[in-house]
Amino acid sequence: MLESLNLLGQTSLAGEKATEDFGARVGSVLKAGDWIGLVGQLGAGKTTLVRGVLQSFGLQDVQSPTYTLINQYQTNPKVNHLDLYRLENAEDLESIGYWDLEEDAITVVEWIDKIEEAWNGDGLILKLEYASDSRIISGYGAGDWSKRLHELWQVKE
Ligand SMILES: Nc1ncnc2c1ncn2[C@@H]1O[C@H](COP(=O)(O)OP(=O)(O)OP(=O)(O)O)[C@@H](O)[C@H]1O
Ligand SMILES: [Mg+2]
């Protein structure tokens, strides 16, 4: 999945607040119809990042969709927050209504790499990795994502 996308940039996030702030900055460039996949081990910070995204829409109470599978927010545009960790295959996607999500919402999917069919190749992938007591975040995407996220990465002189 990541192999077919361009690496947009990478930066380190020192602490939970840095992950939230990064999410809020991503949130500020999102538009209706955007699709964001999150990749990273258990506890890597995916939900923390989405909490930041939703802060940029004025929401403070954001729970993990680990058990609910889909949480929907009536923001403008609407935001769908999903977690595929507990799903097994494309049929499970069908049964949670994955293909019926509104096209004019923003959709953010944790564990997008769990089911191959879940990713249509068009959108932004953010990967979180452990680095001692912090995290490294990498962005992958085609089209105008490079331009839209340009200011989020550390520029190496
Ligand atoms: N940049 C960071 N540095 C250190 N700790 C962080 C950072 N970002 C988030 N954390 C911590 O990582 C923990 C796990 O976060 P979170 O629940 O967001 O992970 P997750 O990737 O959604 O996990 P899951 O796969 O279970 O859904 C939290 O305790 C959070 O405080
Ligand atoms: Mg999570």
From TrEMBL:
<dbReference type="InterPro" id="IPR027417">
    <property type="entry name" value="P-loop_NTPase"/>
</dbReference>
<dbReference type="GO" id="GO:0002949">
    <property type="term" value="P:tRNA threonylcarbamoyladenosine modification"/>
</dbReference>
<dbReference type="GO" id="GO:0016740">
    <property type="term" value="F:transferase activity"/>
</dbReference>
<keyword id="KW-0963">Cytoplasm</keyword>
<keyword id="KW-0808">Transferase</keyword>
<comment type="similarity">
    <text>Belongs to the TsaE family.</text>
</comment>
<dbReference type="GO" id="GO:0046872">
    <property type="term" value="F:metal ion binding"/>
</dbReference>
<keyword id="KW-0479">Metal-binding</keyword>
<dbReference type="GO" id="GO:0005524">
    <property type="term" value="F:ATP binding"/>
</dbReference>
<keyword id="KW-0547">Nucleotide-binding</keyword>
<dbReference type="Pfam" id="PF02367">
    <property type="entry name" value="TsaE"/>
</dbReference>
<dbReference type="GO" id="GO:0005737">
    <property type="term" value="C:cytoplasm"/>
</dbReference>
<dbReference type="InterPro" id="IPR003442">
    <property type="entry name" value="T6A_TsaE"/>
</dbReference>
<keyword id="KW-0067">ATP-binding</keyword>
<keyword id="KW-0460">Magnesium</keyword>
<keyword id="KW-0819">tRNA processing</keyword>
<protein>
    <recommendedName>
        <fullName>tRNA threonylcarbamoyladenosine biosynthesis protein TsaE</fullName>
    </recommendedName>
</protein>
